[in-house]
């Protein structure tokens, strides 16, 4: 299997699902009639994703996947990064691969030549700009520890892990291997909790991870409250301060709160003329924050870069930036 | 081969290429370095489309194809229509089929189970909102007379033909069969000239078609000037008045000119706040015009519907309407 030459030093190596988003506008009647979770993500099998697709209005396809969106955002800031995930040798796999490589992201896990198709995520954007998702993982669910190239982990300042992966036993082992590899050589590990339902499914394991193996946690208010089984954000904040070095907690239009070793910083949300589609807001927030952190910014500046990236992505359909985040950030860059 | 039940009476049955557009923003350096024709469409083989794609920035996939875009626009006006084209049983073929059927368009040519892949069109949108295209027809080039179901032609008031098809010998026979079938039972035949380079390749045959087999011609100023080998639009107008019953000639921001049996009507362009991507302007113009014509509007009103549909589609990426053209048209509808 010929692999691409290893890149030089990296800002971030990420592990996640390789998905192509299939984005359509519809309403909550559609969401409810297909028993999807309003505003959240459900994992479905092939039969169910095809049944929902058959009823979906005309759609557009844009590469997605939570951690993949984050490395695309990092590339837009000018960072170098690598991505580890599974695609098949089909048309959607080629689309996914093209859309990362054309950004300069190192992505060379060989495409599977048999088994399930490349994963996809049906994204229903409702008139309130919220997105409800229905994901068929396909071959992405076959990611395992053998796909984790220790050289890519060693090359990166931060290894970024997608919580959604925790649903699959082999992917869980891949995460454990990546985190252990990174920490054994003094690299940082970041984790996004991904989804409140995902947290609910794996609460104890996620808590153990956050307390023992993770340096930087990303979560939104629902996710962090679910992790600690509390109803108020401030209560969750008390827990998180005791358990991890850095946490970046997003609160939608309320902005975000960054918890550092010695400080708690409130970052206002960047104003947006019109919110079109909130898909990818958390992914791009993570991109901005990780770019700041790995290029020497202070936490407050990293938070501003994060808010800026999130604001760009919610102003249009799709979960990846449409303009250069590097240009957008201008003087904020280190 | 199980076919879908034939629909009732149709406004339009269209023959065209089945393509998925792969849309990316870039600049004329990219266009020139890949030897594409600025603002036009070149037909390429698999090797070349893959070479251009490898260099293309991240893209989004949206179903396209000139005549397919027109039937999508007709559906958005509330018209019933059928489409005849070839896809393969691959992921892009499923995307193309889904995006038409979910609009209620009757599309039931069985997907090929062997041979080239579903066709695609790389669309490079430059900062001036122009589009330069590079089309790999794939299995679409295998459309032939056997695919033309006479019942679908008989069911439709107008049979609409895409000039691009003329590049393929078998598709040319399909066009001839469709036109002959329609005229033999007193139905109307419409043709779009598609592209000035396409006209240049087939001038004599297109002239013969327009003079003998076509009731309604769609062309932009470059195409109609190319057809009659004149440099001034007004000269082309003199020719066209003598040769066909109805012509709808578009002139970009100058609006359009409709030539009827007894009149020539100038239709102003509908104002657009910001032109984002001109892909599909002609296709949606044809949708509006054909909707008006087949639902009993006078030529001037059909022209207004046409301009309205064109204005909607150039205000966003992609060649199909994003909002209901029926709602947009409001009081203009018959």
Walk me through the structure.
The radius of gyration of chain A is 18 Å and the shape is globular. Chain A has 13 helices and 13 strands. Chain A is α/β, with parallel strands linked by helices and about 325 residues long. The longest helix of chain A is centred in the middle third of the chain and has 16 residues, at about 170-185. Chain A starts with 9 loop residues before the first strand and ends in a 5-residue tail after the last helix. In chain A, the strands form two sheets. Chain A has an eight-stranded mixed beta sheet with strand order 5-1-8-9-10-11-12-13, sandwiched between helices. In chain A, strands 3-7-6-2-4 form a five-stranded mixed beta sheet. The interface between A and B is medium-sized, with 26 and 25 residues. Strand 4 of chain A pairs antiparallel with strand 4 (about 60-65) of chain B, so a sheet runs across the interface.
What is the quaternary state of this protein?
homodimer
> Which series of helices and strands of chain A comes N to C?
EEHEHEHEHEEHEHEHHEHHEEEHHH
Mean pLDDT level of chain A = 95
Largest sheet of chain A: 8 strands, mixed
- Strand residue content of chain A: 15-25%
**Low-pLDDT runs of chain A:** none
Cα distance spanning the termini of chain A: 39 Å
Q: Biggest sheet of chain A, strands in spatial order?
A: 5-1-8-9-10-11-12-13
- What's the tally of helices of chain A? 13
> Which pair has the most extensive contact?
A-B, 26 and 25 residues
CATH level 4 superfamily of chain A: Ribokinase
CATH topology of chain A: UDP-N-acetylmuramoyl-L-alanine:D-glutamate ligase
SSE-based structural type of chain A: alpha/beta
Which geometry of chain A do the CA atoms define? globular
The CATH level-2 architecture of chain A is identified as 3-Layer(aba) Sandwich
| Tally of DSSP β-strands of chain A | 13
- What percent of the residues of chain A sit in helical stretches (DSSP H or I)? 25-40%
Radius of gyration of chain A using CA atoms only:
18 Å
